């Protein structure tokens, strides 16, 4: 058996062991490619670090790029951008992720956003994993026009605290 299939075997073992909670929390951790109709560019990426970021994940890092990692994090977790900025989320790992706004945690009058192009949080949840999953090397973009604080999460990894914040000033 090859080293590459170890994660799949581990996940299978968890499922067979009856650990439904863990199996559900790891759902979507497949490196299998899916169709990302909502990604607004080809997601080729060069693997470079976030633009205008000094790394870290300290509150309000000024950047327009957020990385999604195999450690089940958005990096940086909190960013600050000017109104009219397009933020790009890039999957730099092999685990699939979503970008899903908490519908009740975005400013009044702001446009809802979620990878997959959904217009509501429930639609994003209902569409996953067939739509909205950003796979290895893929990207998702959203332009923030309304000032305020936006909170978002990854559907399959929310219980692992994969959440983030965009503050638009």
TrEMBL record:
Q: Which InterPro entries match?
A: BlueCu_1, BlueCu_1_BS, Cupredoxin, TAT_signal
- Does Calcium appear among the keywords? no
Domain Blue (type 1) copper, residue spans? 67-168
State the UniProt keywords alphabetically.
Answer: Copper, Electron transport, Membrane, Metal-binding, Transport
Say where the protein is mainly found. Answer: membrane
Protein origin, superkingdom: Archaea
Q: Does the keyword Magnesium apply?
A: no
Subcellular location, record wording? Membrane
An example Gene Ontology molecular-function term: metal ion binding
Q: Where is this region: Disordered?
A: 31-68
A GO cellular component annotation here is: membrane
Matching Pfam families: Copper-bind (PF00127)
- The protein here is known as Plastocyanin/azurin family copper-binding protein
UniProt organism field: Halobium palmae
């Amino acid at each position: 058996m090859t080293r590459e299939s170890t994660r799949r075997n581990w996940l299978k073992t968890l499922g067979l062991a009856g650990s439904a909670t863990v199996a559900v929390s790891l759902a979507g951790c497949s490196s299998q490619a899916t169709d990302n109709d909502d990604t607004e560019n080809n997601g080729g990426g060069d693997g470079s670090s976030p633009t205008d970021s000094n790394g870290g994940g300290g509150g309000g890092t000024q950047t327009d790029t957020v990385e999604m990692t195999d450690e089940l994090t958005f990096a940086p977790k909190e960013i600050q951008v000017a109104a009219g900025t397009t933020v790009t989320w890039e999957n730099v790992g092999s685990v699939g992720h979503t970008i899903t706004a908490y519908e009740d945690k975005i400013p009044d009058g702001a446009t809802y956003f979620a990878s997959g192009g959904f217009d509501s949080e429930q639609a994003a949840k209902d569409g996953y994993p067939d739509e909205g999953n950003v796979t290895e090397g893929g990207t998702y973009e959203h332009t923030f026009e309304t000032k305020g604080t936006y909170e978002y999460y990854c559907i399959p990894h929310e219980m692992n605290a994969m959440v983030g914040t965009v503050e638009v000033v």
